[in-house]
Amino acid sequence: MSRGGQRSITDVIGDVTRALVPTNTEPEMRRRVCEAFVSSEVYSVSWIGRYLPERDDVIPNASAGIAEQTLEDVSIAAESPRAELTTEAVRTRELTVRRDLVDDPPCEEWRNHALEHDYRTCAAIPLVYEETLYGVLQLATDRPHGFGTSEREALTELGVTIAYALDDAESPANTDRDEREGAAEEMTEVPIESEQKRRLYETIISSTPDLVYAFDLDYRFIFANDALLEMWGQTYDESIGNTLRENGYEPWHAEMHEREIDRVVETKEPIRGEVAFEHVERGRRIYDYIFAPVLDDEGEVEIIAGTTRDITERKEAEEALQKSKERFRALVTASSDVVYRMSPDWSEMHELEGKEFIADTQESTSDWLDKYIHPDDQERVTAAIDEAIRSKSTFELEHQVEQVDGSLGWTFSRAVPMLDEDGDIVEWIGMASDITERKAYERELEQTNAQLKRSNRELKRFAHAASHDLQEPLRMVSSYLQLLEQRYGDDLDADATEFIEFAVDGADRMRAMVDALLEYSQVSTRENDFETVDCEAVLEQATENLQMAIEEREASITSDELPTVSGDERQLIQLFQNLLDNAITYAGDAPPTVHVSAERGDGEWLFSVRDNGIGIDPEETDDIFAVFNRLHAPDEYGGTGIGLAICKRIVTIHDGRIWVESEPGEGTTFFFTIPDSTGEGTT
C-alpha cells in the first residue's frame, strides 16, 4: 500500500489517531494530522481545509508536503481542479478520488502540481460528525491506483473521528479562558469540558486499530479497548480485573511483562518491546508495545498505561525486503552482468553492481540518466521506460553507456517490474550485458560486408568483361587452327594433325570454362526476389533440358512427391539439372538410374538425389564443391569442374546446406536443404 511497501493504511490510521489524543486546539490538531499522514510516507501531500457554511467555502489552514504559499483560499466557484475535487466531496459528503493525474490529467495545472509534489492520485475526505461538515481532508499519493475499497472505507471512518475531535476542539470549553465571562460560567463549563474530553478519548480509543489498555500495580487489567478484547476473544466483563495469566498469556510472556511493569514503576520511564502473541482469530501475530507510567499528584506511579500495535505485515514486508536484497546480492554474485534496482517510476536508481563495466552505485541516486546514459540515447531510453511503466511490461533496449574508464560502451539492458498484491509496481530489477566485444564486431562485420559487396560487384564486372575478352581470341585460335587443317591438311603428317586436334580441343575446353565461370559469377539473388516454386515442375524442366543426354545413356529418372518452396525458380532448375547431369556423367558403364526425394525436417525440407554411379572416395567429398576442382582427368570424364560449385552457391543463397555421401563403386547421394516456408515443422 505504501511507496516502499513497508507501511499499511492501518499503521497510518493508528498514527493519526494517536496524534489526536494530546491536542487541545483546532489548529494544532489539524497540523498534527497532516504531519502524521505525510510522515508515514504512504501519502506525499496532505492538507485540511475548514468549511465555512456561511460562505460555502473550504479554506485550507494546515498542510504537510506542500509549500505554505499554496494554502490560499479555495473557493467553491474557482475553476481549480483541486477545488472541484473538494467541492464534490462537500456536495456529496462522500470520499472522492481522482486518478492518473500525470498520464491522463484533467488539466495541465493539476499535472504540473502532481509532478512538482510527487503524486499520481488524490482523494478528498469530508470530515462529518452527526451530519455536520467540519472540513475536508485532501490526501495525495504516488501510487497510480491508490485509494482502493478497503483504504476508502478506513479513511471514511477516520474522517468521522477527526470531525469529532474538531467538534470537541471548537467547543466553548476549549476556547481561550480569557474570553470566558466570569467565574460562575467557568465553573459551569468544567464538567462539560470533562465530559467532552471523555467522549473524545473514548471515540479515539475505540476507533484505533491499536491495542489500548491499563494495569494496576498488581498486574491486573483495569482497562482494555475493543481491539484488545477482539484479540483475546473475550468481553470487557470477562477480562477486566484479571491478571495476564488469567487472560490467557503464557507464563513466560506474563513474567516478562510483570518485570517490565516493575521497571516502569521503579524508573518512572516508558519501556518499549516487541513480542509475538496469538490472536484468537488471526493466529500468531507480531506486536510492538509501549508501557508508560501514569503519575498521581505526588509524582508516584499509580497506573501503567499500554499501547500495542500489530506490526506483522510490516515485519513480513521487512523480511521480504531482506530476502529480496539477499536474492539480489546472490544474483549479483552469480551473474557476470551488470545488475541494478530502480524505483517504481525510475526516478531513482537504488543500487547498481557494475562488474567493472560501469561505475557501481550502492546508494540511491536520481542523476543516473545523465551519469550513465549517453545524451544521444537518453530520449530513446526514457521513451522505452515510460512505455514499460505504462504497460507494466519488461523494459528492453540496446543503448550507449559511459564505462568506468570514461569511454563509451554498449549495453543490452532488461528490467522486469516487481508488483505488490494490488498489482502496483514497487521496484524494477534489471540486468545489463556488456555488448561493446559485439557492437565493435558488428561494425567490423558491416564494413567487411560492404567491402565484400563492392568486391563481388567488381568481380562480376571483371568476370563478365574477361569472359567476353577471352572468348574472342579463343574463337580466333580455334578458327585459324581449323582453317589451317582444312587448307593444308593433305600436306601435314599424322603428328601435325594430332597437334592441331589437341589445340582445338584445348581452346574449346577453355571456352567452356570461361562460360561456366561467367555462369557461376551470375548466380546471385535477394530473398525478397523469391517466389513460390513447385519443385515437381522444377524437376520436370531440368529433366527436359537434359533429354538428349538421358536418351543417349538410356538413363532412368524417378522421384517421390516433391514440395513447394520459396526460392528462385531459375536457379533451382539449374541446381537440379547440374545434379542430374553429374549423375548421368559419372554413371560408369551401366545405364544411369537416378531417384529424387524430399522429406520435411525441423523447419526445412531435406532433398536427396541418389544415383548408381562410380561413387566418390569419402576423403574427397569435402573438396568436390570447390571451383574448378575435378576428381578425374578430362579425357576420362567431360566437364568444367564448376557445376557442383554452382550447386553449392545456389543452395547457400537459399539459406540451405549441401553435402554428399558416397563410397567408391556404390553410387552417390547428394543432400541439400531448403527452408520450409510454410513453417509447419516436422511431419
From TrEMBL:
Parts forming coiled coils: 431-465
Domain Histidine kinase: from-to ranges: 465-678
Gene Ontology terms for molecular function: phosphorelay sensor kinase activity
Start and end residues of each PAS domain: 197-268
Keywords: Coiled coil, Kinase, Phosphoprotein, Plasmid, Transferase
Catalytic activity: ATP + protein L-histidine = ADP + protein N-phospho-L-histidine
Keyword Transmembrane helix attached: no
Region of interest (Disordered), residue spans: 170-191
InterPro entries registered for this protein in UniProt: GAF, GAF-like_dom_sf, HATPase_C_sf, HATPase_dom, His_kinase_dom, HisK_dim/P_dom, HisK_dim/P_sf, PAC
Pfam families in the cross-refs: GAF_2, HATPase_c, HisKA, PAS_3, PAS_4
Domain PAC: 271-323, 395-447
NCBIfam families: sensory_box (TIGR00229)
UniProt protein name: histidine kinase
Lineage: Archaea, Methanobacteriati, Methanobacteriota, Stenosarchaea group, Halobacteria
